[in-house]
Request: fold
Amino acid sequence: MSQLFFALSGFVSGVISYYLVTSYQSLALLFYVPGVVFGVCVGLVVFVSRRVNILWGIPWILISTASYYAAVYTTLRAIDIGGDGGAAQYVAFLIGGGIGSFLMLVGFHFFLVRLRAQHFFALVAVGGVLGLSWFIGGPLKGLFGGDDASVNLLALLSVWQTIMALGLGFVISRQEQKDMIS
Reply:
């Protein structure tokens, strides 16, 4: 059941992030807001379901924000280095997603829920692959309208945040089951 709440928190986070970034059209918001919103939404689910001390939410939200910034910055720098087209663009989003996921999971591990190594690295890999969700925006353009960048951002934020939050919920649930068996 908690997996559903995690997924829902990720989806809500993605939609709110998209709305805030596109409504105010500020580059500064693009670099920070999705990390803050994801940190708050996922943090709330953890606090309610795991009864974690709410004071750990402050460093968690800061790390969530910093990890999102690192993902965006890394992706943009990799595009600058590798070029704006072809395979280099895909590699840039894969690397950015992986780096952002790694940093976010370090914060999650130390401030909210301890993750086993295999779960940690599996989620880093998932986060990297989810960085590629930017590219599913094109096929979705007919459903949502808007320009390419706007639809790509919607796809990236809603897909990445929903699936990563679901992954966190799944991992926590799996770890709890194994702990009960042991």
Q: What stands out?
A: Helices lie at 2-24, 27-50, 57-82, 87-111, 117-130, 137-144, 148-181. Residues 12 and 22 are 15 Å apart (CA to CA).
